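An example makes the point: we print one protein in full, the chain in one-letter code, the fold tokenised, without further comment:
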Amino acid sequence: MNADIKLYETIKEAGINLILSLPCILLKRLLEIIDEKNEIQHIPITREEEGVGIAAGAYLSGRTPAILMQNSGLGNSVNAIKSLLQLYKIPVIFIMSHRGAEGEKILAQIPMGKLTPDLLDLLNIRTFIIDSVEKINEIENATIFSRESTEPVGILLKRKLWRI
């Protein structure tokens, strides 16, 4: 099965009903599917921390939000994660393409790519790694964990998921 279609179906089955997104070439097809299907509300955002604020408000009104972004945006979100999501126990799901890791051709992506797993650990954000279509179901486990613990979670989508 195509990785993007499986990602979409699993996100929907996990009960995520609001997607906030920033552009990323690896997430492009997934975002197109979300828009084509029009079953999950999708709000494009301009900055990651803007998404954190919107996601927090959406959660407080009964939604299950996820932010689709590049892992490089994690650095932009640190203060909002610590002083909003974690302080007030607001579960938000960060679904991130892991740019700057294996196979990355853009030199500027590499520093944050190397730092991302350690930064997630430092922020005390439980991380789920998806590097194959077979592991996409981890999104459901991440969503359950986030909901039950009322903590944000990180889902890193590795480049090899798309076989590129």
User: Anything to note?
Assistant: The domain at 3-162 is CATH 3.40.50.970 (Rossmann fold).
